[in-house]
Amino acid sequence: MAHPSPTPAPATPAPLTNVNFKHVAALLMREAAITLEAGKEYLVETRLAPLAVKHGVGSVNELIDRLRASEPALTDLHLEVVDALTTNETLFFRDVHPWDALRKHVIPKLREARASTRTITVWSAACSTGQEPYSLAMLLAEHFPDLAGWSIRIIGTDISPTVLRKAQAGVFQQLEVNRGLPALYLVKHFRQEGRNWILADAIRRRVEFRALNLARHWTGVPRCDLVFMRNVMIYFDVETRRSILRQLRHVLAPDGYLLLGTAETAINLDNAFGAVTFDRATFFQPSR
Ligand SMILES: C[S@@+](CC[C@H](N)C(=O)[O-])C[C@H]1O[C@@H](n2cnc3c(N)ncnc32)[C@H](O)[C@@H]1O
């Protein structure tokens, strides 16, 4: 009896070509100033594979061929590729120590310095899915009820429209609320709906989100008393970091505070900033 011929396994797409990898790396540098070194081919393949499926092409190589065919135009697909290649890792109250320092030192100092205007403006630059600005909004609600009558503006920006949509929605998965969020805050400021945790409107409405590319000229950024620019400089080359700090000089109040990621520093990049350490957290301030 003849055996039925086995169903052929789906063809594995050819690995990302070097030309296509370099093409995507150049796009990412041009549009977001993000450096993508050789060796990160796997990252491009895994992050762009869902986009290839979405656009009905058989492989990441074909997706990039499609991009190239439409150039020099910058299409929506180009922007989707840039969006998909951003790294959006974040968590509530990331690194703990800066939040202790904010609660014990920085916010009390700002409260004193701004007593006459009763206005504080905070910018979470590269806020990803919102955990950073929402952590601040919760910290203020919990520890600084006396600021309730003040004008406190918290702005969250990012280059990625996908993370901004999620931030704006204020809906988090179990895994996300398990990371860094104290149980007290979870109980107080979230309600559970199925597998999701929904942030209370009272906190969600305290943060305004919008798109902003740090590597371009910034428009519409007000004078800030506190800037979070955490875990984003690491993706940029030294020249981009310098130009970002140059723009920041015009945005940060002379007695304002800049908070970078724990692996990041402004020292040796721009001598307009000096370091100030509170307990175990370092902030940067315009040098006097
Ligand atoms: C690793 S996350 C850091 C999130 C948060 N600040 C934290 O420390 O938890 C880096 C974020 O930077 C954003 N990003 C990358 N390049 C950017 C650019 N050129 N302009 C603005 N945001 C950018 C990414 O989209 C991503 O959401």
Give a description of the structure:
The protein has 288 residues and is an alpha/beta fold. A hairpin with a 2-residue loop joins β9 and β10 (281-286). The longest helix has 17 residues, at 97-113. The mean pLDDT is 95. It has 11 helices and 10 strands. It folds into 2 domains: 18-84, Orthogonal Bundle (Chemotaxis Receptor Methyltransferase Cher, domain 1), CATH 1.10.155; 97-286, Vaccinia Virus protein VP39 (Rossmann fold, 3-Layer(aba) Sandwich), CATH 3.40.50.150. The strands form 3 sheets. A 5-stranded parallel sheet has the order 6-2-1-7-8. The termini are far apart. Residues 32-34, 86-90, 94, 126-128, 132, 158-160, 163, 213-215, 230-232, 235, 261 line the site of S-adenosylmethionine. S-adenosylmethionine (SAM) is lined by residues 32-34, 86-90, 94, 126-128, 132, 158-160, 163, 213-215, 230-232, 235, 261.
Topology of this protein?
Elements: H1 18-32, H2 41-54, H3 60-70, H4 76-84, H5 97-113, E1 119-125, H6 131-143, E2 151-158, H7 161-169, E3 171-173, H8 174-177, H9 183-189, E4 190-193, E5 196-199, H10 201-204, E6 207-211, E7 224-229, H11 238-251, E8 252-260, E9 273-278, E10 281-286
Parallel strand pairs: 1-2, 1-7, 2-6, 7-8
Antiparallel strand pairs: 3-5, 4-5, 9-10
Helix pairs in contact: 1-4
The protein binds S-adenosylmethionine.
